[in-house]
Design brief:
Layout: H1 2-22, E1 30-46, H2 48-51, E2 54-55, E3 57-71, E4 74-95, E5 111-134, E6 139-161, E7 164-172, E8 180-191, E9 200-209, E10 223-235
Antiparallel strand pairs: 1-3, 1-10, 2-4, 3-4, 4-5, 5-6, 6-7, 6-8, 8-9, 9-10
Length: 237
């Protein structure tokens, strides 16, 4: 709980400091709408036992940003999008080569078996960010919060022996995950000033989950979402 409070306090401190620095002069309201998409590096950080096998996985996200300028260098941005989160695990075991036969035989020696799991958790994401720009919007820093609604959870498990898949299962895990997720968002952005690229931008950011996404069950380990995003943006209005 202490780490959660520290992160929340850090975000609030940055937010209020940003507003104090950036309130140079008010300007007429200016709004813009942009679309974004890009790759993500997603992970569930959790207990030491899970982290021994868990791996980050490459995923994707997309959506729209609505930006409202409130001061000369300060914007409030609301983002609505889709994000595929989850994790991968991989480990080796020794299993009989015909363990999934019906009925299996017992006179064959066990073989090295690679067991791989791939979890896809699909979320609708909303972000509320306070942005401060520097160097004529060549550098934009943003902090805020995100919230997510889980719409689908699917786990794929495969077991392979000698590069041959001997078992595969695809199951829904929505019953094991919370319906909602929330946490802190931090982004760094750059807007291109070239004539040919003036409506384009690039952002890198992190969504750090502050709650366990697993349902409250003693058989489940506590897991929090951690996502690193690359945004490619295009201004449409």
């Amino acid at each position: 709980m202490n780490s959660v409070l520290k992160v929340a306090l850090f975000v609030l401190t940055i937010t209020f400091t940003t507003v104090a620095i950036a309130q140079e002069s008010e300007i007429p309201q200016k709004r813009s709408l942009e679309i974004f998409a890009g790759p993500s590096l997603v992970y569930n950080h959790s207990s030491e036992e899970f982290d021994r096998y868990g791996k980050a996985k490459l995923s994707y996200h997309f959506g729209i940003n609505f930006r409202h300028r409130i001061f000369k260098r300060v914007d409030i941005t609301t983002a609505l999008g889709f994000s595929r989160k989850g994790y991968k695990t991989a480990f080796e075991d020794m299993l009989p080569p015909d363990i999934y036969n019906n009925p299996p035989t017992t006179n064959l020696p066990p073989e090295r078996t690679e067991v791989m799991s791939n979890l896809n958790n699909d979320y609708l994401i909303v972000r509320l960010l306070l942005e401060t720009s520097f160097f004529k919007r060549q550098l934009i820093l943003a902090t805020g919060l995100y919230g997510g609604k889980l719409i689908k959870s699917q786990l794929t498990v495969t077991e392979s022996q000698k590069d041959r898949i001997v078992y595969k299962s695809i199951n829904s895990l929505k019953y094991a995950y919370q319906d909602y997720d929330w946490g802190v968002s931090i982004l760094i952005s750059h807007e291109f000033k070239s004539v040919f690229l003036e409506d384009f931008g690039v952002q890198v950011g992190m969504d750090y989950g502050l709650m366990s996404v697993m349902v409250d069950n003693p058989t489940y380990q506590s897991r929090n979402n951690l996502v690193f995003n690359l945004f490619l943006t295009y201004k449409i209005l």
